[in-house]
Q: What sequence folds into this?
């Protein structure tokens, strides 16, 4: 397996994976996202390949703290193709994200995952990788700016 940075021409495969995660996207939409990530110093998109086929994706952002020195990394997408799940792809992607975040000066990684029951296996994996569910320790609020509930 190989972990590499996403390229513009990975748009269709990345869109396919996002659809499997429950976020349907067109190749054109994903091409724009990859393009912005490539030109950004604060965004990364990594892909996992096996036998020259894209089998996983991780997207992340570096966010500087304001009140104190340093930064943290927020993983905004992690998906492995259904046929490749439970083969170590997600662990390899997360290890690559952790390395990139450490090189960029981050001291913490945040990975947000919905509490839906179909994501229970992912939650268990994060815990095995040393991540802690902090949702009971702090309130998290959000508001849609488009007026939707």
A:
């Amino acid at each position: 397996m190989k972990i590499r940075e996403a390229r513009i021409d990975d748009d269709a495969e990345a869109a396919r994976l996002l659809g499997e995660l429950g976020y349907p996207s067109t190749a054109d939409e994903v091409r724009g996202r990859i393009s912005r990530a490539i030109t950004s110093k604060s965004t990364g998109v990594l892909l996992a390949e096996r036998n020259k086929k894209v089998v996983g994706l991780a997207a992340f952002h570096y966010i500087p703290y304001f009140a104190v020195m340093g930064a943290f990394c927020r993983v905004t997408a992690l998906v492995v193709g259904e046929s490749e799940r439970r083969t170590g792809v997600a662990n390899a992607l997360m290890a690559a994200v952790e390395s990139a975040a450490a090189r960029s000066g981050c001291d913490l990684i945040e990975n947000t995952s919905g509490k839906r029951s179909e994501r229970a296996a992912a939650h268990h994996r994060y815990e095995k990788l040393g991540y802690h569910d902090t949702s009971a320790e702090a309130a998290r609020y959000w508001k849609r700016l488009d007026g939707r509930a």
Q: What stands out?
A: The longest helix spans residues 89-103.
